[in-house]
């Protein structure tokens, strides 16, 4: 596989293990990733994790604003295969059809379920018990191509967006390396997806971060962990936005929805539709992230009792 000429397309940290596996086992001739982005309050221009990885290995990087209009130079590298993993742009048809072994995508769900841009977030938020990785041929649709291989893993009830992303990232790199040889020799599966079973995901929006305590306590819990470590779920307390980092499902005792009725040594309970969610780690407005237990060292926790949040 060392002579296989690969163009890799990816952007976030999730994609890095797959790129590193390809660098170690194939000939990665070019890495395509999203342009550098401004990050933080000081608006520092930062390269993507994939770009950092490529440069560390002295691999040429291409960062088009719009790949649909700026892809011609990729042909100059004569790739045998193009492999994408969370790249973030739709690949044009001419590029899809160019490599002799096709364009392959590493997708973080069990397709056709959870097509689109945020499958890990959505699987946790929906309370799914399992997810996985699908290796698929790319076509002009969004995650609609034929399936080559898939492998599932369970979703723990304490998994967060961060922990599950790490698990799937590792699984994706491993499954791709096992799948590449059969793609090259033409003995791989090539199974059409059943579009009747398809579900779709979208980019996480600001409104997805605000907690609605009219939901069940399980739904609120799933929302909190589906947004951890970033962008984090939030609610309003005394008119200020508090980020809710971690929580646990509390008692079934019902009270006025959205009201803090209980305070514990390590958290505070907010009433949901069917009981309470106990918040145990927070980032109050204009403060650093901390355990609620530590927050209470400098705050009279009894002041929280009876407050309406949201």
Q: Which keywords apply here?
A:
2 domains; alpha/beta; 7 helices; six-stranded antiparallel sheet; seven-stranded mixed sheet; Methionyl-tRNA Fmet Formyltransferase, Chain A, domain 2; 310 residues; Rossmann fold; 22% helix
Mind explaining what this structure looks like?
By secondary structure, the chain is α/β, with parallel strands linked by helices. It folds into two domains: 5-201, Rossmann fold (3-Layer(aba) Sandwich); 206-304, Methionyl-tRNA Fmet Formyltransferase, Chain A, domain 2 (Roll). The protein has helices at residues 16-25, 49-56, 93-96, 119-125, 161-185, 217-226, 292-295; strands at residues 5-10, 27-32, 37-39, 44-46, 61-62, 81-85, 103-107, 115-116, 130-137, 147-154, 200-201, 233-237, 240-249, 260-263, 268-272, 275-283, 290-291. The strands form four sheets. The chain has a seven-stranded mixed β-sheet. Strands 12, 13, 14, 15, 16 and 17 form a six-stranded antiparallel β-sheet that branches. It has a two-stranded antiparallel ribbon with strand order 3-4. Strand 14 (260-263) and strand 15 form a beta hairpin. The longest helix is centred in the middle third of the chain and has 25 residues, at 161-185. It starts with a strand and ends in a 15-residue tail after the last helix. The relative contact order is 0.10. The mean pLDDT is 97.
